Amino acid sequence: MADNPLIHDPIGGMPRLLEIMRKLRDPESGCPWDIEQDFATIAPYTIEEAYEVADAIERQEWSELKSELGDLLLQTVFHAQIAQDKGLFAFDEIVNGISDKMVARHPHVFGDENRNKSAEQQTKDWEAIKAAERAAQAQNGVLDGVAVGLPALLRAVKLQKRAARVGFDWPETTQVLDKIAEEVAELKDASANSTPDHVEEEFGDLLFVMANLARHMNIDPESALRRANAKFTRRFERIEALLAQSGKAPHDSDLEEMDALWDQAKAEEKTPQAQSA
Predict the structure, then answer these.
(1) Any idea what DSSP says for residue 113?
(2) In 10 A of CB 133, how many CB atoms?
(3) Which of 2, 65, 102, 150 has CB 3.0 to 4.6 Å from 155, enough for a Cys bridge?
(4) What is the pLDDT of residues 52-98, one digit of tens each?
(5) Residue 234 and residue 122: Cα distance in Å, rounded?
(6) Which of 162-171's residues contact partners 24+ apart within 8 Å by CB, and which partners?
(7) Rg for the chain (alpha carbons), in Å?
(8) Distances (CA, A) of 225 to 68, 145, 230
(9) CA-to-CA distance for 97 and 169, rounded, in angstroms?
(10) Where would one find coiled-coil regions in this protein (predicted)?
């Protein structure tokens, strides 16, 4: 059977992408790998693509962002085709659903409410609308609806935000810092006197409070950690470059030498002209 001409139309837009995915999933003429996939097997790729979008934004690589957004869009199309194959729902239902949600959640734009609200008031209104939506879905608990499959750090922040809405939160950042000191002490004690399972539990408690500190300081912990990862990568690669100038590799060095080179790399970042001198 010949391909639909739409598949080869360079300006076919969204209909073209939907047709390509339909063809890939065709039981008789599609791709064996695509045919075998289901929601669960594709989900890890969806998460990965979302992070690659965030990475391109972090690095301000706009041509990469265009490509990564396409990859992420493909994930939605893939899930939609699987759902259609199973008779669950179609792509148009996804589009109509999110469109309805956006209109309902922005009555100050699409309805008759006043737009002259502060960002804080708009956020409160948004949360009230979402709470009503959860109630309609019989999600009555404060923490209901926070997806279990979220990355742990992101889920921690979302759980804390939900609890904060009903007053379960420290009013001052200093109290969070005090709690961090308490959790560090408990981790030290567990490390010296307890089982590996208890040590892991205490470590988790510390990470959870660190996420809370990020929230109190209006910091995105995922973004902060990505920046820290990038900084570590950048500085360690500089250590490797400096060692290579002496004909050495990291495994030929030791901690003392590499720590000194780390300090040099750190100083160079603070004074860029030092590297070119």
Answers:
(1) S
(2) 14
(3) 150
(4) 998 899 889 999 999 999 999 999 999 999 999 999 999 999 999 99
(5) 40
(6) 164/215, 165/127, 166/142, 170/212, 170/216
(7) 25
(8) 21, 26, 9
(9) 34
(10) none
**What are the structure tokens assigned to 111, written together?**
């309805």
DSSP state letters, 130-189: HHHHHHHTT--STTTT--TTS-HHHHHHHHHHHHHHTT-S-SSHHHHHHHHHHHHHHHHH
The C-alpha angle 24, 25, 27, rounded to 5 degrees, equals: 115
How many C-beta atoms lie closer than 10 Å to residue 102's C-beta?
A: 11
Residue identified by tokens 């609806």 is 145
Angle in degrees, 0-180, between the axes of helices 221-245 and 196-216, rounded to the nearest 10:
110
Higher pLDDT, residue 274 or 46: 46
The amino acid present at 206, given as its one-letter code, is: L
* Phi and psi torsions of 143, nearest 5°: -95, 0
Backbone angles phi, psi at 251, to 5 degrees: -70, -10
Which residue from 74, 71, 73 is spatially nearest to 25, judged by alpha carbons?
A: 74
Nearest to 187 by CA among 213, 207, 206: 206
Instruction: Tell me which H or E stretch contains 24.
Output: helix 13-24
Torsion of Cα atoms, 127 then 129 then 130 then 132, to 10°: 120
Q: Which single residue is written with the structure tokens 């040590």?
A: 199
**Average pLDDT of the segment spanning 142-147:** 85
Q: Residue 157: exposed, middle, or buried by beta-carbon count in 10 A (0-12, 13-18, 19+)?
A: buried
Q: What number of other Cβ atoms are within 10 A of residue 70's Cβ?
A: 12
Cα 222 from Cα 137, distance rounded (Å): 30
Query: In the numeric block, which tokens belong to residue 40?
Result: 């669960």
8 A C-beta contact, residue 142 and residue 166: yes
